[in-house]
Amino acid sequence: MKVTVVGAGAVGATCADNIARRELAHEVVLLDIKEGISEGKSLDMLQASTLLDCDIKLTGSTNDYEKTAGSDVVVITSGLPRKPGMTREDLIGINAGIVKGVTENILKHSPDAIFVIISNPMDTMTYLALKSSGLPKNRVIGLGGALDSARFKTYLSLAMNCSPNDIQASVIGGHGDTTMIPLTRLATKGGVPVSNFLDEETLKKVAADTMVGGATLTGLIGTSAWYAPGAAGAYMVESILRDQKRVIPSCVLLEGEYGQSDICLGVPVVLGRNGWEEIIDYKLNDEEQAAFNKSADAVRSMNGVLSTLNV
């Protein structure tokens, strides 16, 4: 198996490093537009692999898409990251052209690739990559839900002073500070609803902290986070390449599911060797469905900006 990660910034390099350390593919290509960055980081990872007992081929490339030929999965992280005070939506004018161009260039050399989109605003970039490429819907997947759910599990585990590995929790909807929906009602610890352990006020705080999880880190670090986003990308790649059939909240095209159509939005899906293979119906209650519809309206409004751009 071969994986290409486009964008050798902090998120892309971390994603590639996670894939290499876990030996998810026989070759990982890291591509960037900036001279020497991808080559240098790939060489650094290769040197690290000798200390980690990893046996994998790592290749860095400065904008040479021929080196990505034959990729099974392509992770797109390219574009500008958030700065303090910026929303993910602020990035659309810059990142739309980048994501579309990357998708077109990749397909020239890897026509059968499955795409995982991390670039922000992720829901809109996933929609753009799907519509501009004409690819089958199952081969274009946005990352948001995997990352947001990891943050949700983290905050729940901190509130309950327990291992996050004992928690099942999902976030659906848009990958935005006001559009994501932590499903508190369905979250469990060891199979028991978390509401048995936490009061309503604490659960509301956990949900609120989850929704601004990315902004919190941006404020602390001065730029977008990278460890968890990179790990989330590798987590999705693993489920695809190893055909694990994991249920992972992901941004995919909806065609009537969850009451929405012609929009890419975060819902629980089965990820396997064919990309996303099935949408799982969580049977939302009225309040959750209303929040999902509101999230869809916000994302659809952002998608509408694409028509005003020259992409």
UniProtKB/TrEMBL annotation:
EC number: 1.1.1.37
Residue ranges occupied by any Lactate/malate dehydrogenase C-terminal domain in the UniProt entry: 147-299
Keyword set, alphabetical order: NAD, Oxidoreductase, Tricarboxylic acid cycle
Binding site for NAD(+): G7, A8, G9, A10, V11, G12, D32, N95, I118, S119, N120
GO MF: L-lactate dehydrogenase (NAD+) activity; L-malate dehydrogenase (NAD+) activity
Chain residues that bind substrate: R82, R88, N120, R151
Catalytic activity: (S)-malate + NAD(+) = oxaloacetate + NADH + H(+)
Pfam families for this protein: Ldh_1_C (PF02866), Ldh_1_N (PF00056)
Residue ranges of every copy of the Lactate/malate dehydrogenase N-terminal domain listed in the record: 1-142
Catalytic site: H175
Highest rank taxon of the organism: Bacteria
Signal peptide positions on this chain: none
GO biological process, one term: tricarboxylic acid cycle
Function in brief: Catalyzes the reversible oxidation of malate to oxaloacetate.
Family according to the record: Belongs to the LDH/MDH superfamily. MDH type 3 family.
Protein name: Malate dehydrogenase
Organism: Spirosoma oryzae
Gene, per the UniProt record: mdh
